[in-house]
Amino acid sequence: MKKKQLPFDKELFTRSVLYNVKTLYRKTMEEATPQEIYQASAYAIKDAIIDHWMTTQKAAAEQDPKIVYYMSMEFLMGRAFGNNLINLQAYKAVKEALDELGIDVNVVEDQEPDPALGNGGLGRLAACFLDSLATLGYMAYGCGIRYKYGMFKQTIRDGYQVEVPDAWLENGNPFELRRSEYAKEVKFGGYVNVYTDDTGRTVFKQEGYQVVRAIPYDLPILGYGNGMVNTLRIWDAEPIQCFQLDSFDKGDYQKAVEQENLASQLCEVLYPNDNHIAGKELRLKQQYFFISASVQTALKRYLKDHDNIKKFYTKAVFQLNDTHPTVAVAELMRLLMDEYYLTWDEAWEVTVKTCCYTNHTIMSEALEKWPVDLFQRLLPRIYQIVDEINRRFVDQIMRQYTNSAGIDVQSKIRSMAILYDNQVKMAHLAIVGGHSVNGVAQLHTEILKKRELKDFYEMMPEKFNNKTNGITQRRFLLHANPLLADWITAKIGDGWITDLSQMDKLKSYADDKKAQDEFMEIKHKNKERLAKYILEHNNIEVDPNSIFDVQVKRLHEYKRQLLNILQVMYKYHDIKSHPNKDFYPKTYIFGAKAAAGYLTAKLTIKLINSVADVINKDASIGGKIKVVFIEDYRVSNAELIFAAADVSEQISTASKEASGTGNMKMMLNGAVTLGTMDGANVEIVNEVGEDNAFIFGLSSQEVMDYEKNGGYNPMDIYNSNPNVKAVLNMLVDGTFSKNKELFRPLYNCLLNTNNSSKADQYFILKDFEAYLEAQRRISEAYADKKRWARMALMNTACCGKFSSDRTIQEYVDEVWKLDKVELPVK
Ligand code: F58
Questions:
Q1: pLDDT per residue over 376-391, tens digit each?
Q2: Ligand 1 pocket check for 174: Cβ under 6 Å
Q3: Which positions carry N6-(pyridoxal phosphate)lysine (predicted)?
Q4: Catalytic residue among 46, 449, 554, 586
């Protein structure tokens, strides 16, 4: 039976491309540059999208569904061109149309800058969620910031990371729409004038403030094959020209200049920190800026068709992507009370019923806290409201716990108050001001409940729930790995594209020799594709017959890229000392950006590159190991990498990785996990079975127990384990750098003898032997072709749970309670 396809007019597309090239550039196709052809093609696609976008809006206006506002400082969208074609079900038609014009679709796709308005997992999750929301037919707005510069581009010079600004908007963005008619004003600073107006109402009026205009830019978010187009609304800031610049009043002039400066700085750049908060004033301004504009918009939209503001929460829900958007709680209170005249209690009910919070980390350095004086100076009215929320909450704690046997009320207040120690604790505000708190994998949620947020859980258990992360199979399989996608469709039909649980039908092929061969042949082709990329970009030749062992993710100590490279160093040493020992050739592939100011992370990149240099040039090891550091790891090259991975390195210190999502993307593409029992790895192993993964190392409980008792002494391991000793000595004996002291800081991180509680905080040496052993097991398993093919295939077959469609459906059913939008069937 032929499935329904969205209609797509190929001839119209071709005509439109030719027309666009002519009118945009006064050129013929022969004269146009690849960038110009990309622009012309993107505008042609946008034309096709606009009709669906309008239809969606119309259907929403008629059906009045509840809307989720996904509020996030980051949306790591990746390229839109190919993804839009996939979701329009027009990829093959456009490929053909371009072919007929003598143009390669891949070349066109490569012209698009990779929009990187996010750091890593948290921002990419937001992008996957938007894809799933549209595909499942739920009305959603992504609300974010239109940074002029996204995540920096990484270049590697002499083995070191060098950051280069990412001017992604240089050639404009063909997919966006500027909507100046929906601009909003956002106010900063000044003071609050409190007075009673003629009607006897107490008025809180912000005065002496600076104001900027928030201008929305809308990006279409397409559902797969259903004609649904949602909106990602990202805000830019512009100055408001309310003061005459020729004014003789010096105060006004000064103010006008300040306002201009503020507007020009606000959306300049994304803070490039992963799991670390720098606490900069500008960041708080960014947060309030996009939140105020987004909350104003949500209220306005609701009031267009409804008159009872007290029922706002029946038509809108705000999901706060970590604590960064948490000022939404106080901003919603402010607008409801100051602009729409609700009482405190009425406004509070609406706010709590509207807001929900997702926690993405338990790393203490990532917990957002703002100094009270900064917060108060920048957001005086918001601060008043937070202060009152805190006062009432502390009251509630006292009421609940005073006279409770064995409970120290003061310690409860210390651990839960929103304002404490002259700090505003954003996580506490998010928990108190909303009705749902979720972690992003089962283990993570349990740790939140039992440890980090224990007191909150005890006081309000009904708010806590788990939503294990997921990823979109449309981008990370259908687009990234067309060979495998086609093969799967040939075997089980294409239902998996919108229902990943159907992948389990592949299990019946796990022992089928022919299917195994085909599966591994596809993997091989993808490895060749990546090998070609590596040759072009790194000038390193890698052998697609070797095991591709991949660790790609942000560089952070807890993710333990250092453990991986130490193991490579050990292997190198081992091969050199035992040249005749059997060793299955391996290619270790790394990709990672380090936060610009994170020295240990940057030095780890240098170490990986130095090790790569020595090993790749050492002819004596006969190419048994190669090490590759892929520069500028980002969504677009990630797609190539995931498709080619044999081994997926997920080796974080147990308890530290909230979930991980790269682990899911590699599983989807038939890579086998080598990992610790951390984050979503636990659930991956649960799905695929212990026999189809390689698990090693301390458990999260063991790690937490050590931490409670002040750590452990890595010197004991150093002294008793010759493997560890040999490898650590290589860090400081000049094997990998002329300057023997270069890597001393890494050596000290592991062995710091001055401060043993700081030594090897991430248990690298403690897990080292177990990791070596797991690596050995992998080589052994890979050598048995049949066994490996089965394992790889089983990983793809068992990945059904990890679709973001499943995650979103859980949010909808258990938290958001959205209604599906019905679109007219074409
Ligand atoms: C990540 N967090 C988690 N934060 O580390 C990862 O385990 C999880 O899978 C993912 O979220 C999605 O839930 C993360 O990416 C950030 O990048 C923040 C950016 C802003 C500053 C603080 C860290």
A1: 999 999 999 999 999 9
A2: no
A3: 665
A4: 554
DSSP 8-state secondary structure symbol assigned to residue 31: T
Q: Which of 366-375, 580-589, 680-689, 744-753 has the highest mean pLDDT?
A: 680-689
Q: Which amino acid, residue 369?
A: K
pLDDT, average across residues 125-151: 98
Domain 486-699+762-809 CATH assignment equals 3.40.50.2000: yes
Domain ranges of the chain: 64-79+114-371, 486-699+762-809
Active-site residue 554, yes or no? yes
**Chain segment 208-236, per-residue pLDDT in tens:** 999 999 999 999 999 999 999 999 999 99
From the candidate CATH numbers 3.40.1190.20, 3.40.50.450, 3.40.50.2000, 3.90.1150.10, the one assigned to the domain spanning 64-79+114-371: 3.40.50.2000
Q: What is the pTM of this model?
A: 0.98
DSSP sequence for 508-521:
GGTT-HHHHHHHHH
CA of 463 from ligand 1 middle (Å) equals 21
Q: Where are the beta strands (DSSP E) in 127-250?
A: 140-145, 153-157, 160-164, 177-178, 184-188, 191-196, 202-207, 210-222, 229-239
Q: Confirm or reject: Cβ of 804 under 6 Å from ligand 1.
A: no
Asked if 665 is an active-site residue, the reply is yes
Q: What is the DSSP letter of 6?
A: -
CB 440 less than 6 A from any atom of ligand 1: yes
Euclidean distance between CA atoms 112 and 171, whole angstroms: 9
Mean pLDDT (the chain, rounded):
96
Check whether 437 has a pLDDT greater than 70.
yes
**142 CB within 6 A, ligand 1:** no
Query: Measured in angstroms, how far is the CA atom of residue 361 from the centroid of ligand 1?
Result: 7
Active-site residue, from 153, 444, 479, 559:
559
From residue 775, give the alpha-carbon distance in Å to each of 334, 668, 782: 56, 21, 11
Beta strand segments in 379-536, E: 419-420, 423-425, 436-439, 464-466
Question: Residue 312 corresponds to which tokens in the numbers above?
Answer: 């706002």
User: Which candidate in 472, 604, 661, 807 is catalytic?
Assistant: 661
Residue of minimum CA distance from atom 11 in ligand 1 = 122
From CA 287, how far away is CA 237, in angstroms rounded? 12
361 CB under 6 A from ligand 1? yes
Q: Take residue 504 and report the two structure tokens written for it.
A: 């389990």
Regarding the beta carbon of 275 and ligand 1, being less than 6 Å apart is answered yes
In sequence order, the β-bridge partners of residue 219 are 232
Question: Hey, do 64-79+114-371 and 486-699+762-809 end up sharing a CATH topology, with the first three levels equal?
Answer: yes
Can you tell me which residue has the tokens 């006969």? Answer: 622
122 in ligand 1 pocket by Cβ < 6 Å?
yes
Q: Could you confirm whether 360 is annotated as catalytic? A: yes
The answer to whether 818 and 66 are in contact (CB under 8 A) is yes
The pair of structure tokens assigned to 305 is 């068709």
Query: Whose Cα sits closest to atom 9 in ligand 1?
Result: 660
Residue 680 Cα to ligand 1 midpoint, Å, equals 13
